[in-house]
Amino acid sequence: MIDIHYIAVILLLSIGFYGILFKRNLIKTIIGLSIIEYAVNLFLITLAYVDGGVAAIYTLAPHENMVFPVPHALVLTSIVIGLATTALMLGLAVNIYQKYDTLDTQFVRRLKE
Question: Residue 5: pLDDT above 60?
C-alpha cells in the first residue's frame, strides 16, 4: 500500500513540473521550482520515518526504535540553500522586470537573438 506522503510527493512534483514547463511568467516558474524543492524535502523526511520511532537521542531511549536523523539534517540544510536560491532567482526576476518591463520568458528569450 502506498503511503499518503508518497502521494503528496508525487502531487507536489507534478504541480512543480507543470509550473516550470508550461508557464511563461518568471515568478510562476520560480514558484514551480520552490514546490519541487518542498516535494524533495517531504520525500527525504518520509524516508526517515520509523513507525513507533522515538527521537534519535541515545541517552533518552537506548533500546527503542530510533528515527534516522541524517535526512532531517539534510532537509534543514536544503531549506537554507533553497531560501538563498529562491531569493537570488527573485532578485534576477526583479532586475529583468526593471530592464525589460516584462516577466514573459518568451519575450526575454527573443531579445537575446
Answer: yes
d(CA 106, CA 98) in angstroms, rounded, equals: 17
Q: Quick one: fold of 4-112?
A: Helix Hairpins (1.10.287)
Residue spans of the domains in the chain: they are 4-112
How far does Cα 30 stand from its chain's mean position? 11
For the chain, give the mean pLDDT: 87
DSSP per-residue codes, 6-39: HHHHHHHHHHHHHHHHH--BHHHHHHHHHHHHHH
**Model pTM score:** 0.84
Which residues have a Cβ under 8 Å from the Cβ of 45 and sit 6 or more positions away? 71, 72, 75
Contacts of 20 (CB under 8 A, 6+ apart): 29, 32, 33, 36
Distance CA 28, CA 82 (A): 16
Contact 69, 26 (CB under 8 A): no
